[in-house]
Write a structure and sequence with these properties.
single chain, about 200 residues, alpha+beta, Aminopeptidase, five-stranded antiparallel β-sheet, three-stranded antiparallel β-sheet, about 25% strand
Length: about 200
């Protein structure tokens, strides 16, 4: 899986040595509380290792799940995904597979604009590689992730139950490259940053 670089961040493949960080990240309720219809915390480091193995096994020229690290010192700060989004039960598949973007940031890294910067870099890369549309879905109460979507220039399409068997706020970005996000343009956020039930919520 490729590495993607922005001004302050480096998004790279997950490694086994990252297991302690991933376990710490996903064992925090404040990080996972908006993920899916029945959020659960990670309660075993072995699950982190298994999750890393699945992430490393992704072999796709566009999709991926990246570890977000700081470019300056390689410090792990979170997780970002770009992947096909699962439909809710009873939804009919039709047309091209929809692709979602999502993120999780460690609480110690909230408020620095990392989610916005990382997602902007991945969206730009995805459009360069031929994607024409990317969506994000967030739990209705996940205001922080909704703010990230708006900073990315994504369009809010309203509430939907089409994905993940639960209501979500739906955002989309189409074939245009998102506007570059400079650190001085990002307002600090102290609210919970989590997977957009689909980053990523999920």
């Amino acid at each position: 899986m490729r590495t993607i670089v922005s001004d302050r961040l480096r998004l790279r493949p997950w490694q086994d040595e990252d297991a302690d960080f991933l376990f710490d990240l996903e064992s925090r309720w404040e990080v996972v509380r908006f993920v899916g219809p029945q959020p659960t915390i990670m309660n075993d480091r072995e699950r982190a290792l298994a999750s890393i193995a699945r992430r490393r096994a992704i072999d796709d020229p566009v999709h991926g799940i990246w570890a977000i690290t700081t470019a300056a010192d390689g410090r792990l700060v979170g997780n970002l995904l770009l992947k096909p989004i699962p439909l809710s039960a009873g939804e009919q598949a039709g047309g091209p597979t929809e692709v979602e973007i999502g993120w999780q940031l460690h609480p110690e890294s909230w408020g620095h604009g990392y989610a916005t910067e990382a997602a902007a870099a991945v969206l730009s890369d995805a459009f360069d590689r031929g994607l024409t549309r990317v969506i994000a879905v967030t739990h209705p109460d996940n205001r922080a992730s909704q703010a990230v979507c708006r900073r990315l220039g994504m369009t809010h399409l309203g509430r939907t139950t089409k994905y993940y068997d639960m209501p979500n706020e739906l955002f989309e970005s189409e074939t245009r490259e998102p506007q570059p996000v400079r650190p001085d343009q990002v307002r600090p956020l102290r609210a919970t940053w989590s997977k957009v039930v689909g980053a990523t919520a999920q």
